[in-house]
């Protein structure tokens, strides 16, 4: 984190408070525990603008069940399939339309780990680089890995910052120039910040430029989690999965780093209402719409943080991915994976 970049001070502005209040009124009360049984997925529309993205008669489809903790959805257009991770089960599964979800990488992260030390041995966030190779936030292996999708041969890209091992990389985003952004909370470590394995003093947000060294962009957040860039790549979004202060941060971004940190979404009211889950994974559409996990479900927001819709199941929805050339949104929801059809003309990112 360079000098001048704001830290983890939580000072929501007027717009953030208004948004939190609006979500509090709109969001139904759900139990926050992971064991809560999901109910039929529901779309709560908050703005007529959302009808241009998702047809009024659209329904959320369940495409896979029986997962310990579904995460990291990624659509691979070259093969017309979806990959998604299950960090505690240490598996990445593949789903083709009309078929079952089957193991693709097993183990997906680190093998032979001690559960007294490693809580989540498997892969978490997934992405593709510009050569079509799979990038993995390897929670158990405490590294960023690259996998050939054909041979499934794996190599470690980076596993250290200034000589110290990462905590447990969680989510990642690839910019148009190939720069990799990723978060490194301690969720994969059984004892979290108190783990004897933890070498870094921070839970960081990092940037790795092609051929360059790892750069710490932000080192003062308690639980950095989901990460994405704005459609013009001038802003960096980071979700903070802090039980006491869940929120989405936004930073101005340039070649020097990040600056002007501010709270885009204050999710405390949604959490206080009983919304299941926390601020977690997110994606940004080409028109700038932010699709983000919040307590209570998956929310669609304008770049100015105006709520458009909320997808709810009664259980946490951890992450999402655009797929099918922008015709669908896939969501990992606790023990299942969901598919929401999108309008053909909307600018989703495949």
Topology:
Elements: H1 14-26, E1 42-45, E2 61-64, E3 71-76, E4 81-86, E5 91-96, E6 101-105, E7 123-128, E8 134-138, E9 143-147, E10 154-158, E11 160-161, E12 164-165, E13 172-174, E14 180-184, E15 204-208, E16 214-218, E17 224-229, E18 235-240, E19 247-254, E20 257-266, H2 268-272, E21 282-284, E22 290-294, E23 297-301, E24 307-312, E25 319-323, E26 328-333, E27 336-341
Antiparallel strand pairs: 1-24, 2-27, 3-4, 4-5, 5-6, 7-8, 8-9, 9-10, 11-12, 13-14, 14-15, 15-16, 17-18, 18-19, 19-20, 21-22, 22-23, 23-24, 25-26, 26-27
How would you sum up this structure, described in words?
- By secondary structure, this protein is mainly beta.
- The protein has a single domain, classed as Neuraminidase, CATH 2.120.10.
- 5% of the residues lie in helices and 40% in strands.
- The chain contains 2 helices and 27 strands.
- A 5-stranded antiparallel β-sheet has the order 1-24-23-22-21, covered by helices on one side. A 4-stranded antiparallel β-sheet has the order 2-27-26-25, with no helix packed on it. It has a 4-stranded antiparallel β-sheet with strand order 3-4-5-6, with no helix packed on it.
- Strand 9 and strand 10 form a beta hairpin.
- The radius of gyration is 18 Å and the shape is globular.
- It starts with 13 loop residues before the first helix and ends in a 9-residue tail after the last strand.
- The N terminus is likely disordered.
What features would you highlight for this structure?
Neuraminidase; single chain; five-stranded antiparallel beta sheet; 40% strand; 350 residues; mainly beta
């Amino acid at each position: 984190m360079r000098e001048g970049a704001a830290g983890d001070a939580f000072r929501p502005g007027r717009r953030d408070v208004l948004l939190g209040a609006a979500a509090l009124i709109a969001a139904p009360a759900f139990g926050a525990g992971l064991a809560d049984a999901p109910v039929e997925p529901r779309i709560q529309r908050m703005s007529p603008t959302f009808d241009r993205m998702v047809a009024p008669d659209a329904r959320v489809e369940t495409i896979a069940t029986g997962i310990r903790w579904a995460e990291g959805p990624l659509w691979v257009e070259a093969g017309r399939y979806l990959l998604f991770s299950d960090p505690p089960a240490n598996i990445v599964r593949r789903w083709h339309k009309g078929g079952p979800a089957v193991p693709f990488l097993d183990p997906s992260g680190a093998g032979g780990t001690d559960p007294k030390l490693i809580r989540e041995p498997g892969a978490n966030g997934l992405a593709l680089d510009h050569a079509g190779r799979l990038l993995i936030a390897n929670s158990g292996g405490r590294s960023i890995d690259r996998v050939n999708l054909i041979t499934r041969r794996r190599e470690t890209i980076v596993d250290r910052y200034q000589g110290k091992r990462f905590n447990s990389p969680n989510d990642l985003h690839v910019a148009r120039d190939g720069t990799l952004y990723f978060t490194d909370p301690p969720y994969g470590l059984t004892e979290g910040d108190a783990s004897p394995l933890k070498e870094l003093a921070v839970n960081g947000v990092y940037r790795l430029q092609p051929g360059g060294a790892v750069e710490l962009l932000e080192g003062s957040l308690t639980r950095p989690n989901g990460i994405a860039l704005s459609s013009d790549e001038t802003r960096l979004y980071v979700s903070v999965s802090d039980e006491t202060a869940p929120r989405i941060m936004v930073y101005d971004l340039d070649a020097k780093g990040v600056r002007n940190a501010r709270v885009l979404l204050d999710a405390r009211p949604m959490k206080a209402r009983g919304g299941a889950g926390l601020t977690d994974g997110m994606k940004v559409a080409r028109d700038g719409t932010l699709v983000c996990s919040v307590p209570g479900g998956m929310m669609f927001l304008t770049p100015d943080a105006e709520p458009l819709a909320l997808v709810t199941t009664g259980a946490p929805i951890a992450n999402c991915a655009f797929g099918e050339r922008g015709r669908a949104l896939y969501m990992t929801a606790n023990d299942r994976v969901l598919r929401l059809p999108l309008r053909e003309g909307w600018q989703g990112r495949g």
